[in-house]
Structures are given as structure tokens and as C-alpha cells.
Structure to design on (1062 residues):
């Protein structure tokens, strides 16, 4: 009866080298890794008229109440005599993500929060799950300019990037770069 | 011997041999050959040089808050700063103790005075960088002797004055409170004027104020006593009115006025008066009234606060929100209302998302409608077609629905002249709400059924309206053509129904339907300046233009976007609350024309689609815009309600010669400009050959019709003229009237350079957005030279701007800004050698967004300089 040879010390070493190499190859080839954490995402406000001047989707990271109030006022600017106040956010613990769909030529567009959690990757890249709704190509549509957006609060953190992904995992909006200059002045 | 051991010995011997042999040199000598000198290391830092050029026509305020900037006081009558025309002036003003630390913070720089030559009708605009409370800048105009002529004293972000006659004036920018940067612009065109500003020179009852409270939830509903207590909170006395509508308040006696000023913490010291105001003989009660109104407009519990104007003009509705509806005076509706305000016998079908049937400002305006949406998924009301056109919202989440149909219906015929809410194009009309748009839009089949119902044709509802519609409005569409639908519109037209549709928002000339169907009137959109709205479609099928709005501007300075205001809904809370909304789009333009068609039907019930079309193509319903006669952008022109109802009634408006522009400014460079002479009324107008009173001026025909209506070229010849400002007048006679067009021109012996203020030129890390080096410079012949040394290899942005308010950020709103290669498309500079870059420009912008209540920047962002309150810059590696 043959007996199984136990792997020698050298053989075990080659086994570990091979495993480490495989794992490194995975990183190099970009195979997604499992996110390290999730954080709570709370919808604060959504609107179809956020008066975004750009046609392109964008993400902004708001870390203070002044910029938050500015973003809220911008959303409510089209309502005559509006004196409403934005939902309270404790900026000692939280920050606010603004996801803008960009200007659209008609009604029928909407962005909403698809999950109550957001994923934070190994390098502090945050991914917010959204529903990115666009009307069918052949629909008859109201000819009013819209600019949908949502404002979402998440725990404060030193995020390297923030992106909004739809249900298909497609990146719909991405922050340009992080840091002070990204906040609304 | 162990094989491994033998192998190891051999390896060692071989290694030793290799080491020994490598130490051996060439033949003949025992000394090793000299090694070549090591190459110098490649440089790791470089120099980046270039010039920033100030945009022509820019001037910097001589006394801004940046202590590093050059200083020349312009605060008094004797020291006004001379400025050219046209011009963009960038400046800063502050009350003592207000604003950032800097040159003027302690002592203040409340008044900036400029001297300028202008022609009659020129627009002088002050755009305020930061109009958030407590910052408030005013604009005043005085003659050369310092006598006050006009003022614009609102609390918004724009102030405007139109020069009355040709001459030399003093312009004063006055910081009534707080501090702010600003851009003062004097141009050429006379554009839409402010409707919500204040002026002490206006005709109003001194001491009276018309106020509407925005929040009365704190007052018990027990009549006069409650109103009095509400008014006493703000220190005023009640003269008339009620809490749920307009209230007439008064400053009262001198003592009551003093108490009121104290209650609202209004500073009444002499220093709060501008230089021009101090020398003017103005009723002190009027000055106090303006100060009180300014303070009231900044309170969150006040919805509106206006002087009690003394009116002498055309019929104007008393709806509270009418002052915000700039789009109605634009199409001469007040003049039209003198003739007719409509009729409830006229029916306009609004085929749309439905209407909020309970909206208070649509009560008494709606007749029975229908919901033609077949799919419950689209309708969101749980069923297919039914007789309930109430709009439940067109999207599935709170705060997202547009309530588009309610907005369109309100433009056509909101309850008007009922004190509250908005006005409609018609004061009397019957609106038939037909629901076809829901979640993600609508289908052609549903729309067709609604059209059939409105026209009194058989349809899927199995019913017909008691009276068919006279006008159908379709603020919807798509790209697909349907022959069946085209045939339907011919049938509808044969029924006598006038069909109006939005041209579409794709900024394209690709046909858009239903607007492009034969028999449908296609409406494009213009903004507050009567320019094509950026989104509006154009093309061969556009028939007419109407106000559609532009939310990116607040040119009239009323604090709201220059969009179209009408009835709407807000479902943020989960319930649908009736509100009033500013929307933009060809959706908003179309109901203006539909409403005018309804006014025409009220005057002439026999009006048919064919008559409407003939009047339209004959130019009797519009003011021509763009090229003479019909063009692809404006169609036959901007709808003119006055002309339209006059033409419908068989009494066309008399011919009226108008010039566009109404004044010509050649500045220092232009040699020829276009002048359009056209009929602003009805009928036929014959224009005589223009004459002028200057040898250096020539007027020639460029593109005119048989009656000499059209475009002329006006040319100037500066040769043999000395330096200075020259004015002249072009006189044009016609078969109707004679008008004059003033002309102004400047001759300069040297090239006029711009001055964009003291520049902080930043070398920026494009990843972090932080400045890593800074060069400061004043203008030399309009140029600012820079040379960044010891720049590590890498990529960088180069941004240049002023810091007038000295807050350590450049490119704030009201400050000059420029970037390499252009501000719109910044180009990263890849530095791995010495770089000598091409010029890029810096200047002041008169078009920056003033919509945010927070200070914003021209490009959406400011840049922190390294000169933090003028600390020494440090190169950071």
C-alpha cells in the first residue's frame, strides 16, 4: 500500500508562495474584493428640481451645515415663498452626499436611494446604491426641464472617492476628488 | 563524498575565480584606468512662465479690501473714478466693521463713485457677489453735479437703472449694510428691467407698506386684534387688510416710526445714506419707508413687502405673486387686458399630467375633464381610464412629482385678480383638464383619445364633453411621427379647434411631435432677455416664440430664477400641498400662446384655426425677433397679446416704428453695428431713409423689405478724430411716427488695456486643488507676468484672480478670474522641462449665478491663495 508522502518543508514553502502569488494576481487583475465595511445611508430629501447647472451627473460631499443649507436652499429655490428648513444633520458625526442627475430636457427622470447602507472599500472608496430612472425612449414626455437629485446622510469619514452605482452596478456619478474644495462654499 | 557537498565546493571555487578575474585590469600597467566623470543628475525642478491678460473693457475698483492691491479712493463727489463705456467694473464695498479684515474693514468703504458717459436707454446693472443677509448693496445714479436722478434699492442680488438721456453721470455703488464684492456692468442693450426692486424716487404713498405674512400659525383667528398683534411684532400699525391676504401697514407718527426702526434694529444714522442720497432733497418719510421695506423683505415671516404704489397704468392684476411673473409684461398682456380679460365661454383643453383639482388658485376655473391613461402602472391611480383627471403625481417618491399639468393650467387661466396667488394669461376661461401623462411619460394612443375627446370626436371614454374645446394645449411630445396622428390633427382642425404645442427641449432642429405636425402651432421658448432659451428646439416647423424661462439667471433681481411662475404642487411631505413654482421649458411657452388664443376667441368667437394662422403668418400676432420675418428660431416672432387681441377684434394696433437696439454703443473698438427698424404695431409701416447729425457716422441699408423695414448697418469712422467721447443721434421718420436712436463712441489714442484688479496667480495641484505657489501682480498695459521657479516635475493648473474682499480666496463671485488655457476648459500643464506658456485671460463676469443664498463663485469654485490675509507665501513641495 502506498502511503501519502507528507509535504516537505520546502514543498510547504512553495505552496505558500504559490498562494500569495495567486492572491496578488487577483489584485493586479482587478477582481473585486469584498468591501471591508458598510455604513448607514439615510435619505434626507429628493427632488426633481435641484437646479443643477450642469448637464452631467455629479456627486458632492458636504461636511458642514452652511454648505448643507446652501444645497437645500438651491433645491427649494423654485418654490415661491418657501421657508422650510432642511432635516437636521449632526455634522459632528455625519456628512451629506448630494447626488445630482444633471439637467434633463423633460420630466420622467428620477434618482432615488436604493439601499439604506453604503459600502466602503478597502481604500475608503464609498459606493452609494441608487435607482437611476430614465423614461422609455419612445415615451411622450412633459417638456419641462428637470434636474433630479438626492441628499443622503452617512457617517463622516475620510473617503477617497464617493460614487453612486445603480442596480446594475454601473457607476452613474462620481466625485472628482475629495478634500475641502469639494464642499459647497 | 556527499554529492551536495561536492557541488557546493565547486560553486565556491567558481565564485572566487569570478571575483578575482573581475578585479583584473587591461594590459601593460598595474594602475586601474581613470573612471569617466559621473554625469550630472537630471534637473528635478523647472521654471514656468507666462502672461495673464485682462479682458478688454474691464476696470477694477480703486479701493478694494485687499491691502496688496493699488489704492485710489473713489468715495466722494470730488474723486469719482472715470470708467469707459461699455465696461465691467469689479469692486468691493462695506459698511464700517463689516466684512473680512483688510484695508477697509474698520473704517468702511460704503460708497464707490464712478463717472461715465452714457447714451439714453443704456442699462446699468449692479450684480452683487454676496447678497445673503446682512449684505445689501444699492445702485444710484446722479447727474454730473451730483443730483440724484434714479435709484435701485432692493435686497436681491441685482440692481438695475436705465439711463434717461444721453450725458455724463455719476454712478454710486452703496453698501447699505454688510459687505460684498460686486460687478458693475454698463452695456449696450436695454433688456428686461427689474420688477421687484425698490426706489425712493418711485411714486408711492410715504409711510405705507403693502405686506403679506408668510406664517400666521402663531395668531389666533380672532380678527382685527390678531392682525394688530402681528403688526406690532414688527413695530408697525395696521391700516387695512386681513391676515390671510394683503395687509396695509404704516410707519405711523414720528415716535411710532422711531420705535419701529428700533424694533427691527434698523440703523438710521446719516452714515447709512449714500453720497448721492445725502445731497438729495428726498421726502424723509419715503427714505424711512424704503429702509423699513428692505428690513421686512429679509424676514422669514414676511412673504412680500412692497410700497403702496400710486398707479396710473394699464389694467394690472392685484394677485400677490404677479410682480414675479415677468413673462406677462414681456408679451404686452396688461395692454391686452385693457381690451379683454377673456371669457368663461371659451374652453382650453390642457392635455397633460392632469391637474391638482383642489388647488386654491384654480378654483372656479376647471370644468369636467377625463383621465385617459390606460395603464395603471403609468396612471398611478389604481385603474385605467376614468372621469377623474386629478393629478396624483407622476413619480413614485415624495418630492419628485412635477405636477406639470397644474403649472400649465395656471399659466393659461389661474384665478386672476383675486389678490392671492398668481395671475393667468386669461382672467376668465374654462380649463378642461385631460390626463395622459403619468409615471415615465405617456403613450400616443392615450394622447390621441384625449385629443378626440377635447375636439368633440368619438373616443374610448364613450362620452363627449358638453361643449368641445376651442383651444388645445399640448406641452408634451417625442421624436416619432405618426400618420394616424397627423390625420387626427387635420380632423381636429376641421372641427375648428386651434392646437398649440411645445416645440421641445432638445436644442435641435430635428422635428418634434406633435408640434411639427401640419395644423399644429409650434412654440419655441425665449428667456427674460428675449433670446432663444438654451434648451429650446428650433427649425422649419417653429411658428412662434413665447416666454419659457431660464433658471440659471436672476436678471431681474427678484431673488428667484428667471423661470415661469404658475400654480403647482409639492409632495415632499407625502401629501400634495398647493404651491407656486418657477419652471422652465417649451412646456411653459406653449400655454402663453394657448392663453392668447383664448383671449382672441373671447374677442372674436368666430376665430378659426385658418384665421389664426393667417394672422400669425401676417405678423399681426407677434413682435419680430431675429432676422426679418419668419426664421427658424422664433418663427414669426414673440407672441404679442395686445396685437393679437386687437387683430382678432378687427381693430389692429396702429403701426409703430421701433428700433432694436434702442441705442448704439461703439465703445473704443467697434466700427460697425446692426440696427433693426421694424413695425412694433399692426398694419403696414413705411420707413424713410435714416438721417444723422455726425460726419463720422454712416447708416446704410443691409437687409430691408419693400417698405424699408429691416436691418441697417451703422458705421463709424474714427480717422482724424481726437481722443474723447463722441455722441450723435440717428433720426428715422416713418409713415407712423419718428424715433431717435442715440449713438456713443470713444476714440482713444492708445490701445485701451483692461484692468482686472490685483491678481493672485496660483500654481495648483490638480489632485488636491491646493495652491503650491503664488505670484502676485498689478496690471501693466493690461498684462500680468508670472514666473514660477523651482517647480517640481508634475502636472499643474494655473489660475489667476483677484481677492477684492480679502478672504484669501480668489475667483469668488464678483472677483476677477481666469485659468490656463480657458476658464471653461482648464488645461493641466505637464512640467518636466522649463515651460513658457501662452497667454490666458482674466476678467470680471456679469453672468455669474446669483441664485444661491450663499456666496458662490463664477466657475462653481473658489481657490484659496497662499496669501492668507496677506501672509508670506510659502512654496510647498
Amino acid at each position: 500500500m502506498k502511503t501519502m508522502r507528507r509535504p516537505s518543508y520546502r514543498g510547504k514553502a512553495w505552496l505558500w508562495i504559490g498562494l500569495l502569488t495567486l492572491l496578488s494576481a487577483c489584485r493586479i487583475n482587478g477582481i473585486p474584493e469584498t468591501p471591508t465595511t458598510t455604513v448607514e445611508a439615510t435619505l434626507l430629501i429628493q427632488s426633481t428640481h435641484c437646479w443643477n447647472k450642469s448637464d452631467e451627473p455629479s456627486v458632492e460631499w458636504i461636511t458642514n451645515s452652511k454648505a448643507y443649507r446652501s444645497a437645500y436652499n438651491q433645491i427649494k429655490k423654485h418654490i415661491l415663498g418657501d421657508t422650510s428648513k432642511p432635516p437636521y444633520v449632526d455634522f459632528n458625526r455625519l456628512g451629506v452626499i448630494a447626488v445630482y442627475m444633471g439637467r434633463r430636457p423633460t420630466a420622467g427622470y428620477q434618482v432615488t436611494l436604493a439601499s439604506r447602507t453604503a459600502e466602503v472599500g478597502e481604500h475608503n472608496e464609498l459606493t452609494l446604491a441608487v435607482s437611476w430612472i430614465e423614461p422609455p425612449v419612445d415615451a411622450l414626455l412633459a417638456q419641462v426641464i428637470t434636474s433630479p437629485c438626492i441628499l443622503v446622510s452617512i457617517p463622516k469619514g475620510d473617503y477617497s472617492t464617493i460614487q453612486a452605482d445603480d442596480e446594475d452596478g454601473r457607476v452613474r456619478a462620481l466625485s472628482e476628488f475629495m478634500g475641502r474644495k469639494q464642499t459647497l462654499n | 563524498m556527499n554529492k551536495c557537498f561536492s557541488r557546493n565546493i565547486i560553486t565556491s571555487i567558481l565564485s572566487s575565480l569570478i571575483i578575482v578575474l573581475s578585479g583584473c585590469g587591461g594590459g601593460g600597467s598595474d594602475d586601474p584606468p581613470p573612471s569617466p566623470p559621473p554625469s550630472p543628475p537630471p534637473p528635478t525642478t523647472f521654471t514656468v512662465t507666462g502672461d495673464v491678460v485682462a479682458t478688454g473693457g474691464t476696470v477694477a475698483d480703486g479701493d478694494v479690501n485687499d491691502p496688496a492691491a493699488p489704492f485710489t479712493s473713489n468715495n466722494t463727489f470730488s474723486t469719482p473714478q472715470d470708467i469707459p463705456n461699455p465696461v465691467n467694473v469689479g469692486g468691493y464695498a462695506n459698511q464700517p466693521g463689516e466684512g473680512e479684515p483688510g484695508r477697509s474693514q474698520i473704517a468702511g468703504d460704503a460708497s464707490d463713485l464712478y463717472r461715465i458717459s452714457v447714451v439714453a436707454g443704456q442699462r446699468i446693472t449692479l450684480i452683487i457677489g454676496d447678497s445673503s443677509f446682512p449684505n445689501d448693496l444699492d445702485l444710484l445714479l446722479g447727474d454730473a453735479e451730483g443730483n440724484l436722478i434714479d435709484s435701485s434699492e432692493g435686497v436681491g442680488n441685482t440692481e438695475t437703472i436705465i439711463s434717461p438721456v444721453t450725458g455724463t453721470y455719476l454712478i454710486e455703488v452703496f453698501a447699505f449694510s454688510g459687505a460684498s464684492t460686486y460687478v458693475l456692468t454698463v452695456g449696450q442693450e436695454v433688456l428686461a428691467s427689474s420688477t421687484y426692486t425698490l426706489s425712493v424716487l418711485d411714486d408711492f404713498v410715504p409711510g405705507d407698506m403693502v405686506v403679506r405674512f408668510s406664517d400666521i400659525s402663531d395668531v389666533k383667528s380672532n380678527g382685527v386684534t390678531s392682525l394688530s398683534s402681528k403688526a406690532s411684532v414688527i413695530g408697525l400699525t395696521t391700516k387695512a387688510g386681513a391676515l390671510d391676504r394683503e395687509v396695509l401697514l404704516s410707519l405711523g407718527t414720528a415716535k411710532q416710526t422711531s420705535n419701529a426702526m428700533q424694533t427691527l434694529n434698523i440703523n438710521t444714522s446719516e452714515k447709512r445714506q449714500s453720497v448721492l442720497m445725502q445731497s438729495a432733497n428726498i421726502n424723509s418719510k419715503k427714505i424711512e419707508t424704503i429702509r423699513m421695506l428692505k428690513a421686512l423683505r429679509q424676514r422669514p415671516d414676511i412673504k412680500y413687502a412692497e410700497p403702496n404704489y400710486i398707479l396710473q397704468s394699464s389694467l394690472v392684476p392685484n394677485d400677490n405673486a404677479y410682480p414675479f411673473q415677468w413673462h406677462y409684461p414681456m408679451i404686452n398682456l396688461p395692454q391686452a387686458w385693457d381690451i379683454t380679460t377673456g371669457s368663461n365661454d371659451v374652453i382650453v383643453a390642457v392635455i397633460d399630467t392632469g391637474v391638482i383639482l383642489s388647488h386654491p388658485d384654480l378654483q372656479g376655473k376647471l370644468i369636467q375633464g377625463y383621465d385617459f391613461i390606460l395603464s395603471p402602472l403609468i396612471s398611478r391611480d389604481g385603474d385605467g381610464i376614468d372621469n377623474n383627471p386629478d393629478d396624483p403625481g407622476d413619480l413614485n417618491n415624495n418630492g419628485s412629482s412635477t405636477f406639470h399639468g397644474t403649472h400649465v393650467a395656471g399659466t393659461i387661466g389661474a384665478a386672476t385678480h383675486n389678490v392671492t396667488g398668481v395671475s393667468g394669461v386669461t382672467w376668465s376661461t374654462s380649463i378642461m383638464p385631460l390626463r395622459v401623462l403619468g409615471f415615465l411619460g405617456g403613450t400616443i394612443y392615450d394622447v390621441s383619445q384625449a385629443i378626440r375627446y377635447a375636439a368633440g370626436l368619438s373616443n374610448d371614454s364613450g362620452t363627449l364633453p358638453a361643449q368641445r374645446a376651442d383651444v388645445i394645449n399640448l406641452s408634451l411630445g417625442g421624436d416619432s411621427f405618426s400618420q394616424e396622428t397627423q390625420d387626427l390633427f387635420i380632423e381636429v382642425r376641421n372641427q375648428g379647434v386651434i392646437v398649440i404645442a411645445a416645440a421641445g427641449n432638445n436644442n435641435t432642429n430635428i422635428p418634434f411631435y406633435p408640434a411639427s405636425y401640419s395644423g399644429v402651432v409650434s412654440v419655441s421658448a425665449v428667456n427674460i432677455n428675449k433670446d432663444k432659451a438654451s434648451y429650446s428646439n428650433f427649425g422649419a416647423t417653429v411658428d412662434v416664440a413665447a416666454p419659457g424661462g431660464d433658471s440659471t439667471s436672476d436678471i431681474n433681481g427678484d431673488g428667484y430664477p428667471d423661470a415661469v411662475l404658475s400654480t403647482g404642487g409639492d409632495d415632499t411631505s407625502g401629501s400634495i400641498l398647493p404651491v407656486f413654482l418657477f419652471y422652465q421649458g417649451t412646456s411653459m411657452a406653449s400655454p402663453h400662446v394657448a392663453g392668447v388664443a383664448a383671449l382672441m376667441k373671447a374677442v372674436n368667437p368666430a376665430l378659426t384655426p385658418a384665421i389664426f394662422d393667417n394672422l400669425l403668418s401676417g405678423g399681426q400676432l407677434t413682435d419680430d425677433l431675429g432676422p426679418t420675418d419668419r426664421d427658424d428660431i422664433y418663427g414669426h416672432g414673440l407672441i404679442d397679446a395686445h396685437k393679437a387681441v386687437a387683430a382678432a377684434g378687427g381693430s389692429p394696433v396702429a403701426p409703430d416704428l421701433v428700433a432694436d437696439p434702442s441705442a448704439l454703443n461703439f465703445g473704443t473698438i467697434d466700427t460697425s453695428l446692426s440696427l433693426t427698424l421694424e413695425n412694433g404695431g399692426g398694419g403696414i409701416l413705411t420707413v424713410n431713409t435714416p438721417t444723422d447729425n455726425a460726419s463720422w457716422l454712416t447708416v446704410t441699408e443691409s437687409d430691408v423689405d419693400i417698405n424699408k423695414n429691416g436691418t441697417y448697418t451703422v458705421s463709424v469712422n474714427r480717422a482724424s478724430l481726437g481722443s474723447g467721447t463722441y455722441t450723435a443721434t440717428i433720426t428715422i421718420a416713418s409713415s407712423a411716427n419718428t424715433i431717435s436712436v442715440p449713438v456713443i463712441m470713444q476714440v482713444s489714442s492708445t490701445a485701451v488695456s483692461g484692468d482686472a484688479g490685483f491678481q493672485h496667480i496660483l500654481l495648483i495641484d490638480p489632485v488636491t486643488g491646493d495652491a503650491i505657489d503664488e505670484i502676485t501682480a498689478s496690471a501693466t498695459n493690461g498684462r500680468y507676468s508670472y514666473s514660477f521657479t523651482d517647480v517640481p516635475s508634475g502636472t499643474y493648473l494655473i489660475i489667476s484672480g483677484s481677492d477684492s474682499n480679502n478672504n484669501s480666496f480668489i475667483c469668488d463671485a464678483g472677483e476677477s478670474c481666469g485659468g490656463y488655457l480657458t476658464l471653461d476648459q482648464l488645461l493641466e500643464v505637464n512640467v518636466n522641462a522649463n515651460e513658457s506658456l501662452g497667454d490666458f485671460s482674466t476678467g470680471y463676469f456679469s453672468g455669474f449665478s446669483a441664485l444661491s443664498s450663499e456666496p458662490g463663485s463664477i466657475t462653481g469654485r473658489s481657490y484659496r491663495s497662499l496669501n492668507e490675509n496677506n501672509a508670506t507665501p510659502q512654496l510647498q513641495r
User: Anything to note?
Assistant: Residues 616 and 636 of chain B are 7 Å apart (CA to CA).
